[in-house]
Design goal:
The protein is an alpha/beta fold. The protein is 37% helix and 18% strand. Strand 3, helix 3 and strand 4 form a beta-alpha-beta unit. Helix 1 packs across helix 11.
Amino acid sequence: MRTLLFSFLFALLASGFLAQAEEPKARQDAPQTFLYKSIGTYKLSLDVFRPPDTQLRPVIFWIHGGALISGERRWLPPQQRQRYVAARFVVVSIDYRLAPETKLEGILEDLKDAHAWVVKNGEKLFSADASRLAVVGNSAGGYLTLMSGFVLQPRPKALVSFYGYGDIAGPWYSKPDEFYRTKPLVTEQDALASLQKGWRGRFYLYCRQNGLWPKEVSGYDPEKEPAKFERYCPERNVDAAYPPTLLLHGDQDTDVPVSLSRSMDAALTRQKVEHELIIMKGMGHSFDTGPRGLEQPEVKAVFNHALEFLTSKLKP
C-alpha cells in the first residue's frame, strides 16, 4: 500500500504530466443517449460523451452513487466528465435499477447488461474501444466499481473507486449508525411514505439509523444469513486476476468509513494485485463532488493522478 498525503498530492500539480492533462475544456454538447435494457416497466439508458472526432477511443464506464437507493446517470459531475473527455476518453454513464424495489442481484444484472451492451455496440455506435475499458464510480458507485473487478467479463483494465466499499455486511452498515442517529429519527412509516414521494434519501436515513441497509438492499439478513453476502463483498472475492485498482477516500468520511478502503487495500495486497490507496487528509464523503469540487487544489491533484493512472492502463 502507498498512502499519498496532501503535500505530495499538491506537488503533483507542478508535474509535467499534469501540465499536459490540464484543460482545454471539453465540449459542452449534450450526450448521445441509448436504451440498453428494458425489463418490466423499467427503461434503462446510458449517456455517452466523447471527443469531437471519430477515432477509436478507450472507455470510462462511470457508475453513480446514492447508496444503491437513489441516483441516476446524470449525477456524473460536469467538471470530471469534461476532464475525461479532454483526456480523449469515451465516457459512458449508466442508469441501473434501485433498491429496495430491486434487490442487489438485479442491480448487478443491470451492471453486467450495460457493460455487455457497450462491449457489443460501443465501437459501431460511438467509436469506443471496449477492449480498453476502465470502471470509475463514487460511493455506492465505487462499490459497484469494485464488484466490476470480478463480475464483469471481460474484466476491466482498471478500476477507480472514490470512497467505495468492499464489504456490505459489516457493522458499519448492519448496525445502527451513531452519526446518522444524531439526525432526527425517521419512522418506518415515514421512510416507506418517502419512497412513494420520491424522497429516497429519507429511506436511506431510516436504514442507517436502524442498521437495515444490507437487508433492504440485498433481501438477506447479515446476522441470520451471512453466507449470502459472500458474493456481494468485493474484498472477499479478490483474486490474482483482479484489475489494477486505485482507491480514493477521505479520512473524515462519516458515511463510508475510511477503514473500508483500508480493508480493500489489504485484500488487494494479499493477492499481490497492482493497486494504490490514497487517503485524503481532512476530507469527508463526496470530497470531489461538493460545492468546490475540483477547484480545491488537493482534490484537483488527486483527480489528475487518477487520470494519469487511467491513461497508463488504457494505452493501446
